[in-house]
């Protein structure tokens, strides 16, 4: 999640400030990772890199990199839309009050953009947590992998799948509730309305 957030912020700032060459690279990155399934990305990292580059990353590293790159592409769009939603008048007003551009970004634009981006940010976090269910395809132990093992050992499919649902709820429900609380707190002062 941290890698996805940092990549997303960096890509959003590149797009927001319209940095010439980097902007095109970021566009390609976003389109590539948003329009291909995580499973294919993981297969490329886990099975393709050893063939192409001779690098054999561990399943854990492939999972972190794959999820980070996928999440970064979604986070970039969420943060970019938040930054672009802040009216230019806000920047002009901050500059006319004597703030520098970095100060205007830090104290005026970014707080409003964060409030606007928060619902998409929380939705992306939940989406990424659910996407971990495909990690079992690269032999990485996750909840789905464990459920499949239990089904194979005890032949209790319904019970194991019900447990899987409960465990995902235990993980995702607090994230959703916390995200809602943070959204409400950020919206005070009509940010994001």
Structure in words:
This protein is mostly helical and 193 residues long. It has one domain (2-190): MetI-like (MetI-like fold), CATH 1.10.3720.10. The chain has eight helices and no strands. It has helices at residues 2-16, 20-34, 38-52, 59-85, 88-96, 101-131, 143-154, 157-186. Helix 1 (2-16) packs parallel to helix 4 (59-85) and helix 2 packs across helix 4. The two termini are 26 Å apart. The mean pLDDT is 91.
pLDDT averaged over residues: 91
Sheet with the most strands? none
Compute the number of helices: 8
Shape: flat
Strand content: under 5%
Q: Tell me the CATH architecture.
A: Orthogonal Bundle
* Straight-line N-to-C gap: 26 Å
How many distinct beta strands? 0
Summed up, the domain count is 1
What is the CATH top level name? Answer: Mainly Alpha
What do we call the CATH topology? MetI-like fold
| Helix percentage | over 70%
What name goes with the CATH superfamily? Answer: MetI-like
Q: What order do the SSEs take from the amino end to the carboxyl end, as H and E?
A: HHHHHHHH
Radius of gyration: 20 Å
Broad structural category: mainly alpha
Low-confidence stretches: none
